[in-house]
Design brief:
223 residues, extended, Arginine/ornithine antiporter, 0% strand, mainly alpha, 76% helix, single chain
């Protein structure tokens, strides 16, 4: 796109092209049908992405529920074997997010930053597990496994810090509903919460409270 555009349109005009800019570039080269072609391709691409992400969002809670790690309600299927409850809930959440974008232009940026911070925690725990697994299997472990685990752990810790500790605190708010779900699933599977579970619950709740306080006092700006 960059090379093609600079070969047919002046640089000061490229910066003023409206989206999708490739449509206007192709129109400049071959005529109006080029713009139509790109726009049709864009529509097909967006519809495909929308369908794919809709199915993916519903598939995740459905699979986890079938494995007994999420409420069984999410594992319900309709007559066409589609995860109906999972699709309904995930799509409701998506619609709420889209509606929020009507009230502020920063909603997407905030959600993007929060999601980026949230996903770093599982990455960090995965790196820690590599170290733990290596320690537990010293007889089978080699130097490569040690190096990968240690470097990955250090790097992911730095990523969490670089992403912003304020966003990390706000991320704890996302985990609180997860605590309720976890407690419900454990009870549904006839399992009791352990002392470690309660310790982690308290730790997450305390961090969430700190995040709320900093948000209320203006120390954290989300928009």
């Amino acid at each position: 796109m960059t090379v093609l555009a600079q070969g047919v349109i002046q640089q000061n005009q490229i910066s003023k092209l409206a989206n999708p800019s490739m449509a206007q570039v192709l129109e400049h080269i071959v005529g109006h049908w080029g713009s139509v072609l790109v726009n049709i391709g864009l529509i097909i691409s967006v519809l495909g992405a929308w369908l794919g992400w809709t199915l993916l969002a519903g598939e995740l809670p459905f699979i986890v529920a079938k494995d007994g790690l999420f409420p069984k309600w999410f594992a319900k299927e309709n007559k066409n074997k589609a995860p109906v409850n999972a699709l309904i809930i995930t799509n409701i959440l998506v619609q709420l997010f889209l509606i929020s974008m009507l009230f502020t232009d920063s909603a997407y940026q905030f959600a993007f930053s929060l999601a980026s911070s949230a996903i770093l925690i599982p990455y960090t725990l995965s790196a820690f597990y590599q170290v733990k697994y290596t320690i537990q299997n010293k007889s089978k472990a080699n130097l490569k496994q040690w190096i990968i685990g240690i470097i990955a752990s250090i790097y992911t810790i730095w990523l969490v810090y670089a992403a912003g500790l304020d966003y990390l605190l706000l991320t704890m708010l996302l985990y609180i509903p997860g605590l309720l779900v976890y407690s419900y699933v454990q009870r549904d599977n006839n399992k009791h919460l352990t002392k470690l579970d309660y310790t982690l619950f308290i730790f997450i709740i305390v961090l969430a409270i700190i995040g709320i306080v900093r948000l209320i006092t203006g120390n954290i700006s989300v928009f």
